[in-house]
């Protein structure tokens, strides 16, 4: 579904992604892990063109999205993204947050957009918060709204950048549970996370980044039991 080939990203003189290549299959859940500053967010942002790779190509369903002729907004319609800090619209109710983009970007009717939004809010367990404003929600609730909002666009792939890192510990599970459910529906997901148990249980594959390089790409059972590199061993020693 996604193919990245020799992705290099430079910010000024700093090279933050070095020649990363990988392929993500339809329905696959890929966990991206690695130390802070290793390029995980930048890699994710390249996949939906929030950053443009300095070198290399990315394909989404056989279409090269890094082709300068591609319309970034058209590409992003197919890719949902959830951030660490939610980014909800503060002046809109929960229901409006979720129903907004399908109307604006996809041009579907108001009635249909609200139907979809209500269904998705039920799915993430927030029917009772439809009329609330984001500032009245807990972090876990906000993140579940953010997930519902991304899903409202019916994306083919969902990108998550440390979706639970800003949450109080007691709220992490409710968000991971929603993500697990989503994975079980067959959604293609790329998840940057420090939740090693989630990565172990839910991911089909681990990408381990260090200093901008893709150091290991492995099945979770192999990666967590017998990492192939010293760097991954060191990292796992620190976080597990
Ligand atoms: P991670 O998500 O693994 O913590 P990032 O992808 O956020 O890593 O960052 C990788 C490196 O790129 C860091 O050194 C960071 O400072 C740098 N970086 C990220 N975004 C920018 C930017 N917009 N401009 C300049 N440097 C950036
Ligand atoms: Mg990051």
UniProtKB/TrEMBL annotation:
Domain of life (superkingdom): Bacteria
Signal peptide: none
Molecular function (Gene Ontology), one example: ATP binding
One Pfam match: ABC_tran
PROSITE patterns named among the record's database cross-references: ABC_TRANSPORTER_1 (PS00211), ABC_TRANSPORTER_2 (PS50893)
Domain ABC transporter: 2-236
InterPro entries attached to this UniProt entry: AAA+_ATPase (IPR003593), ABC_ATPase_HisP-typ (IPR030679), ABC_transporter-like_ATP-bd (IPR003439), ABC_transporter-like_CS (IPR017871), MetN_ABC_transporter-like (IPR050086), P-loop_NTPase (IPR027417)
CDD domains: ABC_HisP_GlnQ
Alphabetical UniProt keywords: ATP-binding, Nucleotide-binding, Transport
SMART domains assigned: AAA (SM00382)
Keyword tRNA processing recorded: no
Protein name: Amino acid ABC transporter ATP-binding protein
Organism of provenance: Virgibacillus dokdonensis
Lineage, highest ranks first: Bacteria, Bacillati, Bacillota, Bacilli, Bacillales
């Amino acid at each position: 579904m996604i193919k990245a080939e020799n992705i290099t990203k430079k910010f000024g003189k700093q090279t933050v992604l070095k020649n990363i290549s990988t392929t993500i299959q339809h329905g696959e859940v890929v966990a991206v892990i690695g130390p802070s500053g290793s390029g995980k967010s930048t890699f994710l942002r390249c996949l939906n063109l929030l950053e443009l790779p300095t070198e290399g190509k990315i394909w989404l369903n056989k279409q090269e999205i890094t082709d300068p002729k591609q319309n970034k907004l058209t590409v992003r319609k197919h890719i949902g993204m959830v951030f660490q800090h939610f980014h909800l619209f503060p002046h809109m109710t929960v229901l409006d947050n979720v129903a907004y983009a399908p109307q604006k970007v996809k041009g579907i009717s108001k009635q249909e957009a609200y139907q979809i939004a209500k269904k998705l809010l039920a799915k993430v367990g927030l029917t009772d918060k439809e009329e609330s404003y984001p500032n009245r929600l807990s972090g876990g609730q906000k993140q579940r709204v953010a997930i519902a909002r991304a899903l409202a666009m019916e994306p083919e792939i969902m990108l998550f950048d440390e979706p639970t890192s800003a949450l109080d510990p007691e709220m992490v599970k409710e968000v991971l549970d929603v993500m697990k459910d989503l994975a079980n529906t067959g959604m293609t997901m790329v998840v940057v996370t420090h939740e090693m148990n989630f990565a172990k249980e839910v991911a089909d594959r681990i990408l381990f980044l260090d200093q901008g390089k893709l150091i290991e790409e492995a099945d979770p059972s192999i990666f967590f039991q017998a990492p192939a590199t010293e760097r991954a061993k060191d990292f796992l020693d620190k976080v597990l």
